[in-house]
Specification:
The protein is α/β, with parallel strands linked by helices and 299 residues long. 47% of the residues lie in helices and 17% in strands. Helix 1 (13-26) packs antiparallel against helix 2 (28-44). The termini are close together.
């Protein structure tokens, strides 16, 4: 089963609006309290998704107990709170740090030199809180961010912004299902203007786009070829990026420049993602059977 065949249990415009109003009137603590019980009921009434979590945890080397499955669910709910706070400019950018000084310097150079940057992200951690950091730290540089999301995620994001009447001038969303022949031209122009582009490289499209199969966590997994083809067409600096939460509750930015040889980019990305997934296993949010294509072991 693919990710787009799994009914969303923990996100959506109604739940996002509920979180917003609770946060507005009672604060983050109240949101976390309510979210715990919402997650608990979603966990109870989603046996199929629990099964996918259990299988993933076993593959990554975490004991696939009910407790760890619930921790996996709860970790995802926690990032939804952070996302909502990011949308309403309540997320503290000081809660974002870098894995080392070299990474921080590299990221600063990309943003401040305004040469454009193409970032291949993933569903490990939470890339969306980076918007808060960029808006707060670099707004005077007019940094514009372009994000490719699924069509349903775009609708949720734009509808939420519309309902709470917040401006979104610093972010443009693009549905991956609607990428056409003119999209690369438009994005290339944005990159040439110094804008930033983010697109995930670890989830295949619902439209049946071309994929490539590779070994990931010791299993055969499909990755979308289109993301890497897109990156080659842009002819600009390409980076792999992940933001994950550490034990202190801060998001840590991991950044790696893609190899100069286009033939090496896919393998380098998979290795980058695999290494960080092993370090932060409960923050890998693929609640579907990502290993369905594997034929080397138990399904």
């Amino acid at each position: 089963m693919k990710w787009y065949q799994v009914k969303e249990q923990a996100a959506g415009i109604k739940r996002l609006m509920l979180m917003y109003y609770i946060h507005k009137f009672f604060g983050r603590g109240a949101v976390k309290f309510v979210t715990f019980f919402v997650t608990f009921f979603a966990f109870i009434f989603a046996p199929e998704v629990r099964g996918y979590s259990k299988k993933y945890l076993a593959v990554v080397g975490v004991k696939p107990s009910l407790q760890n499955q619930f921790r996996h669910f709860l970790s995802y709910s926690d990032i939804l709170i952070d996302n909502m706070e990011t949308f309403i400019d309540k997320f503290n950018p000081r809660n974002i740090t870098f894995c080392d000084e070299e990474t921080k310097k590299e990221f600063f150079n990309i943003v401040l030199q305004k040469k454009g940057g193409f970032f291949i992200s993933s569903h490990l951690g939470n890339i969306h809180v980076l918007r808060s950091f960029l808006s707060a730290e670099y707004n005077k540089y007019n940094v514009h961010v372009n994000i490719f999301l699924s069509e349903s995620q775009c609708k949720i994001f734009n509808e939420f912004i519309r309902r709470i009447m917040l401006p979104q001038a610093d972010v443009t969303t693009y549905p991956v299902e609607q990428i056409g022949i003119g999209t690369p031209i438009e994005i290339k122009q944005k990159l040439d203007n110094g804008e930033l582009v983010f697109i995930a490289g670890d989830r295949v499209s619902e439209t049946g786009s071309t994929v490539f199969k590779t070994e990931f966590l010791g299993k055969t997994v499909e990755f979308p070829l289109g993301t890497f083809t897109f990156a080659r067409l842009m002819d600009c600096p390409t980076f792999f990026i992940v933001l994950v939460k550490n034990q202190k509750g801060k998001y840590v930015v991991y950044l790696e420049k893609a190899p100069a040889n286009p033939q090496d980019v896919q393998g380098a990305y998979v290795k980058f993602l695999e290494n960080l997934t092993r370090r932060y296993p409960l923050q890998f949010y693929h609640f579907y059977d990502i290993f369905a294509e594997d034929t080397t072991g138990e399904k």
